[in-house]
Task: structure prediction
Amino acid sequence: MHPNRMIVPQLLTAMCAAALMAGCANLDAPTNQAMAEQAMEGKAVPEHWVASARVAAFDPAWAGFPEHGTLQALIDEALANNLDLRVAASRVQQAAQQARLAGADLLPTVGFGARTATDPTPGSAFSANGYAILINWEIDLWGRARAEKRAGEAGYRSTEADYAYARQSIGALTAKSWLAALEATGQLALAQELESTTGEQLELVQYRRRIGKVSELDVAYWAQQREAAADVVAQREQARMQALRALELLLGRYPEGAAQANEAIPDTPPPLAPGLPLDLLDRRPDLIAARERMVSAYFGAEEAKAARLPAISIFAGAGRFTKDYSGLATSMQSWVYPVGASLIWPLFDAGRRQITLELRTEQQREALASYARAILTAMGEVENGLTGEQQLALRERAIQRQYSESTRALELAEVQRQIGQFDTFDVLQRKRDVLRVKGDLLHVRAERLVQRVNLHLALGGKFSVVDVPSE
Result:
């Protein structure tokens, strides 16, 4: 035989084998580190947080509030009754079923069939009957079914992480709503006290007007001040009711504004010790969800790649076949055992499989970009949270000094009034100053605690034990 005639078949065989191997699905998922590096390619990530010189392992436990206090009970109630969480829990169950469905192609299918037929020719008495059990199994030679299964599993894990993040977000939102209700209650009490103090000043001015020491202009001014104080009371009451109703909605209650928020605002807990930026990727559920969606998109593309190759199936069965003839005394019966294989290789499908592969590839690029965006957003939230903590701490110290000085001025005014060097009106004015600064201090303390909740959530902290609904 001519040597060239032997080379051509060998070359064709090698080319077909290379094409088949190139189309096989890669069933090794990229590592978390590789995905993070690919997502953050071209972006400089510092080893430590820019806004914090501290380097320590972050403790994802409670943000610093009492673990068994009112707030924890409210968070537990919100997690049990919140309707958004019920929606998220249902999505977890749907994803679990999708993952199970995606792995069904790896197992054989078993079916039962039966058939009966008669000859419609007049005078004929022929009939045939049969039944069989058939087993069919598509051999996952190229990894298509396994890639589909792993894509479904990654999709389930991403939904699990979304559910965990939803729980943490509801916990954080409950904490912030509770703090807003506490502040609104405290501000209402201060506004009422300020209204009372302004009313006392108006009475003193009216008395001075009667004895001719002040003019009617002074009376009108302080009457206006009292009405302004009454308006502030109405505003604070409205803010309190809105805060209580927002809290009740989170708790799954009817929003009637009947929730109790009469406690003092807690003290600010010690500073959080954040870890390294990459620690965030394994701690925040929303980043885990974005990463798993990237894995799912990766295996989706691998599935589409393998779907272009031939599908090979084998089948086997066992059955019984019976024929009856009117001219025969007995029936003809036999057992049949069909065994075989099939190969289907799509040669032309109007580009459907290639388009599917290109679509899955673009979805993979989208998932990568979304993961990178989620990482940068998370890091921005942490940096803003750390900076906010520092600035709010400075503000609180400054306002605390104002409060101390205004309180000291009030005490000195009381002493001078007792020895006749200060009148009651001026003492009440000092009291008004104290109440205003006290309101500012209450606000900055509440704002600092809200900032702590935001930072704790940004760092991947937990507000309760995160569980996943059982299947």
Q: What stands out?
A: Residues 28-107+154-305+354-459 form a domain with the Outer membrane efflux proteins (OEP) fold (CATH 1.20.1600.10). The chain has one domain: 28-107+154-305+354-459. The first strand starts at residue 109 and ends at 118.
